[in-house]
Amino acid sequence: MQKDVRKFGISDKRGRVKTSADPYISGEGLKEPALCSSCKAFYRNKRWDLDPKAYAAMENSPEANWVTCPACQKIAESYPEGIVTLRGEYLWDHEEEIRNILRNEETKAMAKNPLERIIRMDREGDDLVIETTEEKLAEHLGRALHKAHQGELKVSWTEEHSICRVTWERGA
Ligand SMILES: [Zn+2]
């Protein structure tokens, strides 16, 4: 692993071009430990984590810095970076099962990165629309659904807004 003193500088865009368009701080520049009062995620050792015991140990510390984490900000402001649209007759015949898959995948993703969350999951006409805080989660949900229920999957990225659009469709 290369340690670069410019790691947190503006010039560093290695593989993280999309993050630069993200108006929400990912943690860089935050004073540690930073604690999110809404979801109890915390930022320590340069990463976001969810761990109720560790949170409880830090919350009364004078060292604690109170913040709203980027995921909670995106949820509060309805700022999705991933949009998944599901459609087709098969979807509504298996709605419960499909919703469960999506929620389970969100839980698994959050265990690895607490900032990956579903903002909302709503029926809009004949579509089921899921918005996510991170692009990666949208792609992940689409792939998980495709793996479990086949159908047709399309994943596209809009560079300038760093939004990942995923559509999945399956007929009867
Ligand atoms: Zn939060």
UniProtKB/TrEMBL annotation:
Domain Nmd3 N-terminal: from-to ranges: 65-156
InterPro entries xrefs: BCAM0308-like, Nmd3_N
UniProt superkingdom: Bacteria
Protein name: Nmd3 N-terminal domain-containing protein
Organism: Desulfuromonas versatilis
